[in-house]
Design goal:
Layout (H helix, E strand, L loop, with lengths): L9 E6 L3 H7 L6 E5 L9 H14 L5 E5 L8 H11 L3 E4 L5 H13 L5 E6 L2 H5 L1 H11 L2 E6 L1 H8 L11 H14 L2 E4 L8 H14 L3 E4 L5 H7 L4 H15 L8 E4 L2 E4 H24 L1
Parallel strand pairs: 1-2, 1-8, 2-3, 3-4, 4-5, 5-6, 6-7, 7-8
Antiparallel strand pairs: 9-10
Helix pairs in contact: 2-3, 4-6, 6-8, 11-12
Length: 294
């Protein structure tokens, strides 16, 4: 399990057209850098941003995972984005406004044709995507290309007229449906951005909510959000301590062949041992990442 976990606690959007911001990303303790060719780039700057993204990819970002968000299927620049990004070999391509399984198949075929090994990240940000999330999950499994879903609450709010309110009650059913679909597909899923950069307390609350719901991390719009996001989506010291105790309890000879053991007066099942193993593997992966980015 240790080898399969890649920390994706924090994923920072950076305009690919802003060379200074892109250079700064190489110094930040973020797990994922997302070079944006879509919303963060003005229409007349997209061609230059595409070239700058390719150059930045060639220079690298150290141990950080690097993803490029291209323009969506059918949007101006999509084909040119995909060709340029595939040639520059990012870790993944993030595609906005994916609406169904056919989109996933088309994108996977395009990367295959380009000879790219990049994975696909899919933005779930429309009513159609939410309604078709099972189909998207099935196509993701078949393609073998998809590594993550990314929620897009701002576009969801625009399209559905749901309000972006503290606690996100209007969106909770959609978020949980998409999370369940990601787990069925065997891919990670990242919570969406928090718009109010100045509201640090509100941001922490939303990070903790996303963590408790089961998200693997969150997309960010400002470097000031990284530390709190990493903390929220990392196992706490108490969680690590408990996980080690559970792992030790099942590693003992008295647990051989047992489905349940007693630990501190409570029954612990094998499923808890599996959960504990993931906590410990994630902690180990995070420690490696943080050592590499110091």
């Amino acid at each position: 399990m240790t080898n399969t976990i890649r920390p994706r606690r924090s994923a920072l959007f950076m305009p690919a057209s802003n060379a200074r911001a892109v250079a700064k990303a190489r110094t930040l303790p973020v797990d994922v850098v997302i070079l944006d060719l879509e919303d963060a780039v003005a229409p007349d700057a997209k061609a230059a941003a595409r070239e700058q993204a390719a150059m930045a990819l060639r220079e690298g970002f150290g141990p950080r995972e690097v993803v490029v968000r291209i323009n969506g299927i059918g949007a101006p620049g999509h084909d040119a984005d995909l060709a340029a990004v595939a040639a520059a070999a990012p870790d993944a391509v993030l595609v906005p406004k994916v609406s169904g399984g056919e989109d996933v198949r088309q994108l996977a075929d395009a990367l295959d044709a380009a000879g790219s090994s990049a994975r696909l990240w899919l933005m779930i940000e429309s009513a159609a995507a939410v309604l078709n999330i099972r189909e998207i999950a099935r196509a993701s499994v078949v393609s073998g290309r998809v590594a993550a879903f990314v929620m897009g609450p701002n576009d969801l709010a625009r399209e559905t007229r749901a309000r972006l309110v503290p606690g996100r009650a209007p969106m909770l059913p959609w978020l949980m449906d998409c999370l369940a679909a990601a787990r069925v597909a065997g891919v990670d899923i990242l919570d969406g951005v928090y718009n109010d950069i100045a509201d640090a307390d509100g941001f922490v609350r939303e990070c903790e909510q996303g963590r408790d719901m089961g998200f693997d991390g969150k997309t960010l719009i400002h470097p000031s959000q990284i530390a709190a996001c990493n903390a929220a989506f990392s196992p706490s010291a108490a969680e690590v301590k408990e996980a080690r105790a559970i792992a030790a309890a099942f590693a003992g000879p008295e647990a051989a062949g047992q489905g349940v053991v007693m630990l501190d007066g409570r029954m612990v099942e094998r499923l808890h041992a599996q959960m504990a193993a993931r906590v410990l593997a994630l902690e180990e992966a995070i420690a490696r990442r943080e050592a590499e980015t110091r």
